[in-house]
Amino acid sequence: MRRRSFWPCPGFNRLECQGKSCRAPSASRRTGPQSAVFQTNLGYLQFEEKTLEKALNTFRQATLLDERYAPAHFGIATVLQAMEQGIEAEQAARSGLAVDDSDSLGWNVLRLTLKLQNRDEEAEEAFDRSLSLDPELPDPASNLGSLLQQRGEFEKAIAM
Fold this sequence. Notes:
This protein is an all-alpha fold.
């Protein structure tokens, strides 16, 4: 199975990459430097280059350009996770889910923020939600398997 890119929008239309029509607001679908999509992708590039402050500022710029573009919120959460700022990361993830609660990757981002705060039961609920939205998504399934293994629930982990 080919692993999907963590970038929410490698083709500047994140849902098109998953074989679905784009639900992002039309303002988000613009592809120039003054679009939320462009800024979000730039933020993930900066994140991969480990320039966390720069990435955080870029994701925040994306939310200013279009507060209804959920991947920008998830980008903020991802950077804050890396900075070990769990409470702020959770707030950002929940902001993104308030925009689009059907985003399976967004639920996985929330799961990671909850796990960072040692809130395993809530993390498992977020995993379940992520998997129910996209059972083929590899990251949530493998992450849930790891969580179950850490808790000693080996049979459930193997079933993942």
